[in-house]
Design brief:
Blueprint lengths: L1 E4 L2 E4 L2 H5 L5 E2 L5 H10 L9 E2 L3 H5 L3 H4 L3 E3 L4 E3 L10 E6 L5 H14 L2 E5 L8 H4 L2 H4 L4 E6 L4 H9 L4 E5 L11 H8 L7 E2 L5 H13 L2
Parallel strand pairs: 3-4, 7-8, 7-9, 9-10, 10-11
Antiparallel strand pairs: 1-2, 5-6
Helix pairs in contact: 5-10
Length: 219
């Protein structure tokens, strides 16, 4: 079933089809379309996740609408309500450095919205490998691992070689010069010699969280 809001056709049936509800990617959408969607879903029925949402969009809404939302400026995500907490399944999110925080936070907030337990472990980059190895036991207590890293993206490959759980790698646009806005990390993750790693698009914390949710759905 679809319904139109400011030229946006909303897909209510997605949850039934694939086990994940539609989220609203807010970047570049016309203001009138976003305003209509934010007003419609401010009741939290159904719970809807807004991603890449700018603070000034919320600030432009009537106070009663804006105050209905739980907004996180780091991840640029918002919701008026979350889905019910899952009884089973958990995900670890590990990042190379605090520069990767916006993408890691997007993954964490998406999992929170989906009702999936998660643990965020920041600043575990390979420049000091002990930061990763000291947390392997904790990592392995989860059902899936999201690795968020920029620069050359080596953290994903090393994690994949040490951790037996499904590893979902997110290259970020963090890095100097030839890092190329995340392309070096993307290439490194795609060419990783640790078998079985899955890689999503650059800065796509939301996509990695949804991939993890598909794994959790199987549990």
């Amino acid at each position: 079933m679809e319904q139109e809001f400011g030229n946006v056709l909303f897909d209510y049936a997605r949850q039934a089809r694939i086990g994940l509800p539609e989220a609203i990617f807010s970047e570049s959408k016309p203001h009138h379309s976003l305003a209509a969607l934010l007003e419609r879903f401010s009741t939290g029925d159904p719970p809807i996740l807004f991603t890449r949402l700018r603070q000034e969009i919320l600030d432009s809404l009537p106070p009663g609408v804006a105050s209905a939302y739980n907004y996180d400026p780091l991840s640029r995500t918002a919701w008026a309500a979350t889905l019910p907490r899952r009884a089973k399944g958990s995900v670890a999110i590990i990042s190379g450095g605090t520069s990767d925080a916006p993408v890691a936070a997007e993954a964490a907030r998406t999992l929170e919205y989906l009702g999936i337990r998660h643990t965020l472990m920041e600043d575990c980059g390979v420049a000091a490998l002990w930061r990763l190895t000291e947390r392997l036991q904790e990592l392995n207590s989860h059902d899936a691992v999201i690795v968020v890293a920029g620069m050359e993206g080596a953290l994903a490959c090393i994690t994949g070689g040490l951790c037996p759980k499904p590893v979902l790698a997110v290259p970020t646009s963090v890095g100097y010069g030839v890092a190329g806005g995340g392309r070096a990390a993307l290439a490194g993750m795609l060419s990783c010699c640790a078998p079985g790693i899955s890689v999503v698009n650059i800065d796509n914390g939301y996509g990695a969280a949804c991939a993890a949710a598909r794994i959790i759905n199987l549990t």
